[in-house]
Amino acid sequence: MARRIVQALLVSASAVGALIIAPAQSNAAAAACPTPPTVDGFYGYQGTVKSSTPLRTGPASTCSGRYISGAVAVSCWYANSAGNIWYATMHYGTLQDGWVYGGNFTELNMTLNDENYCDGW
To answer: Which carries the bigger pLDDT value, residue 81 or residue 1?
Structure first.
Protein backbone atom coordinates (compact mmCIF):
# COMPACT_ATOMS: atom_id res chain seq x y z
CA MET A 1 0.00 0.00 0.00
CA ALA A 2 2.79 2.42 0.94
CA ARG A 3 4.54 1.60 -2.34
CA ARG A 4 1.39 2.55 -4.33
CA ILE A 5 1.12 5.86 -2.47
CA VAL A 6 4.76 6.68 -3.24
CA GLN A 7 4.27 5.74 -6.91
CA ALA A 8 1.16 7.90 -7.09
CA LEU A 9 3.01 10.83 -5.56
CA LEU A 10 5.88 10.44 -8.04
CA VAL A 11 3.48 10.37 -10.99
CA SER A 12 1.68 13.45 -9.63
CA ALA A 13 4.97 15.29 -9.13
CA SER A 14 6.01 14.45 -12.71
CA ALA A 15 2.73 15.76 -14.09
CA VAL A 16 3.01 19.00 -12.10
CA GLY A 17 6.61 19.43 -13.25
CA ALA A 18 5.55 19.03 -16.88
CA LEU A 19 2.85 21.66 -16.42
CA ILE A 20 5.33 24.08 -14.90
CA ILE A 21 7.89 23.56 -17.68
CA ALA A 22 5.43 23.77 -20.61
CA PRO A 23 4.60 27.50 -20.24
CA ALA A 24 8.30 28.38 -20.09
CA GLN A 25 8.89 26.54 -23.35
CA SER A 26 6.01 28.29 -25.10
CA ASN A 27 7.26 31.67 -23.79
CA ALA A 28 10.69 30.89 -25.23
CA ALA A 29 9.14 30.07 -28.61
CA ALA A 30 7.14 33.31 -28.52
CA ALA A 31 10.30 35.30 -27.74
CA ALA A 32 12.10 33.71 -30.70
CA CYS A 33 9.21 34.52 -33.07
CA PRO A 34 8.03 38.04 -32.17
CA THR A 35 5.10 39.58 -34.01
CA PRO A 36 6.35 42.08 -36.59
CA PRO A 37 5.48 45.76 -36.38
CA THR A 38 2.41 46.79 -38.37
CA VAL A 39 3.32 47.45 -41.99
CA ASP A 40 1.64 50.38 -43.73
CA GLY A 41 0.81 49.34 -47.30
CA PHE A 42 0.62 52.96 -48.47
CA TYR A 43 3.77 54.36 -46.88
CA GLY A 44 5.92 51.22 -46.67
CA TYR A 45 8.71 50.34 -49.06
CA GLN A 46 7.43 48.42 -52.08
CA GLY A 47 8.95 45.11 -53.08
CA THR A 48 8.46 41.74 -54.74
CA VAL A 49 9.24 38.29 -53.34
CA LYS A 50 9.97 34.97 -55.05
CA SER A 51 7.24 32.40 -55.61
CA SER A 52 6.52 30.27 -52.48
CA THR A 53 8.36 32.64 -50.11
CA PRO A 54 7.66 31.92 -46.43
CA LEU A 55 5.97 34.80 -44.58
CA ARG A 56 7.04 33.81 -41.06
CA THR A 57 5.75 34.68 -37.59
CA GLY A 58 9.26 35.74 -36.52
CA PRO A 59 12.67 36.60 -37.96
CA ALA A 60 14.02 33.03 -37.99
CA SER A 61 13.68 29.97 -40.22
CA THR A 62 12.34 28.02 -37.23
CA CYS A 63 9.24 30.24 -36.96
CA SER A 64 6.03 29.03 -38.58
CA GLY A 65 4.38 30.79 -41.47
CA ARG A 66 2.53 30.62 -44.76
CA TYR A 67 3.75 30.83 -48.34
CA ILE A 68 3.33 33.97 -50.43
CA SER A 69 4.55 35.41 -53.72
CA GLY A 70 4.33 38.71 -55.55
CA ALA A 71 3.93 42.27 -54.29
CA VAL A 72 4.66 43.23 -50.68
CA ALA A 73 5.14 46.31 -48.52
CA VAL A 74 8.06 46.50 -46.07
CA SER A 75 8.33 48.75 -43.02
CA CYS A 76 11.76 47.93 -41.56
CA TRP A 77 14.64 45.44 -41.42
CA TYR A 78 16.14 43.36 -38.60
CA ALA A 79 19.36 41.35 -38.20
CA ASN A 80 18.67 38.21 -36.11
CA SER A 81 21.14 36.46 -33.78
CA ALA A 82 22.54 34.47 -36.75
CA GLY A 83 23.24 37.75 -38.58
CA ASN A 84 20.57 37.15 -41.25
CA ILE A 85 18.57 40.12 -42.53
CA TRP A 86 14.78 39.87 -42.21
CA TYR A 87 12.11 42.36 -43.20
CA ALA A 88 8.79 43.21 -41.49
CA THR A 89 6.50 42.64 -44.45
CA MET A 90 2.83 42.84 -45.45
CA HIS A 91 1.68 40.68 -48.36
CA TYR A 92 -0.77 42.59 -50.57
CA GLY A 93 -2.62 39.44 -51.67
CA THR A 94 -3.58 38.39 -48.11
CA LEU A 95 -3.00 41.62 -46.12
CA GLN A 96 -1.06 39.47 -43.62
CA ASP A 97 1.97 40.82 -41.75
CA GLY A 98 5.03 38.69 -41.09
CA TRP A 99 8.78 38.40 -41.54
CA VAL A 100 10.53 37.64 -44.86
CA TYR A 101 14.19 36.61 -45.16
CA GLY A 102 16.18 39.08 -47.26
CA GLY A 103 17.29 36.46 -49.79
CA ASN A 104 13.67 35.93 -50.88
CA PHE A 105 13.24 39.38 -52.42
CA THR A 106 13.51 39.81 -56.18
CA GLU A 107 13.02 43.56 -55.84
CA LEU A 108 13.19 45.95 -52.89
CA ASN A 109 14.22 49.60 -52.93
CA MET A 110 15.26 50.02 -49.30
CA THR A 111 18.55 51.06 -47.72
CA LEU A 112 19.70 49.19 -44.61
CA ASN A 113 20.30 52.05 -42.21
CA ASP A 114 19.33 53.11 -38.67
CA GLU A 115 16.27 55.00 -39.96
CA ASN A 116 14.75 51.79 -41.36
CA TYR A 117 15.80 49.41 -38.55
CA CYS A 118 13.04 47.62 -36.60
CA ASP A 119 13.57 48.98 -33.08
CA GLY A 120 12.64 46.79 -30.13
CA TRP A 121 13.40 43.39 -31.65
So the answer is: 81
89 three-state secondary structure: strand
- Roughly how many angstroms between the first and final C-alpha of the chain, as a whole number? 55
Alpha-carbon distance 1 to 3, whole Å?
A: 5
Q: Are 74 and 39 in contact (CB under 8 A)?
A: yes
Cα of 66 vs its chain's centroid, Å: 11
Reading phi first (left if > 0) and then psi (alpha if -120 to 50, else beta), residue 101 is in beta
Chain-centroid distance, C-alpha 78: 12
Query: In sequence order, which ranges of 1-121 are alpha helices (DSSP H)?
Result: 2-32
Q: Residue 121: its pLDDT value, please?
A: 61
* pLDDT value at 10 more than 90: no
Closest CA relative to residue 66, chosen from 80, 51, 48, 52: 52
- C-alpha–C-alpha distance, residues 68 and 89, integer Å: 11
Strands 45-56, 85-91: pairing is: unpaired
